[in-house]
Amino acid sequence: MAGDEELRQAFRELATKVAETKQRIAQGEVKKQNALRNEKSSRLAASQLKELGDRPTYHGVGRMFILTSSTSEIERHNKEADEFKQAAGAVDMQREFLEKSVEESERNLREMVEQKRSNDA
């Protein structure tokens, strides 16, 4: 009977972990989509600035604007795009880790069930 309660508890914990993992994966996908959208926007802004040539450009900071060169703005947009791409990659790595964690928990539960069956037999 104690073994049955242990299995029930393990199943509850696994169900909770799976639900939490699915939620975290969904949140990660939203973050990834936002990062990819921002990366695309930064790359587009950089390409637009390249078309303008070397002109003075204003960069918005809070409620003020700072005069900069277009080359520095292009570099800034490219750097932002790279940061967004890295953030999307980090989300993918986190997703893989979460999926592996759930698989490991499922494997442990299967082993517990098999052990229970062999002890009962």
TrEMBL record:
InterPro entries membership: PFD_beta-like, Prefoldin
An example Gene Ontology molecular-function term: protein folding chaperone
Stretches the record annotates as Disordered: 102-121
Record keywords: Chaperone
Superkingdom of this protein's organism: Eukaryota
GO terms for cellular component: cytoplasm; prefoldin complex
Family: Belongs to the prefoldin subunit beta family.
Subunit structure: Heterohexamer of two PFD-alpha type and four PFD-beta type subunits.
PANTHER family attached to this UniProt entry: PREFOLDIN SUBUNIT 1, PREFOLDIN SUBUNIT 1-RELATED
UniProt protein name: Prefoldin subunit 1
Native species: Pristionchus entomophagus
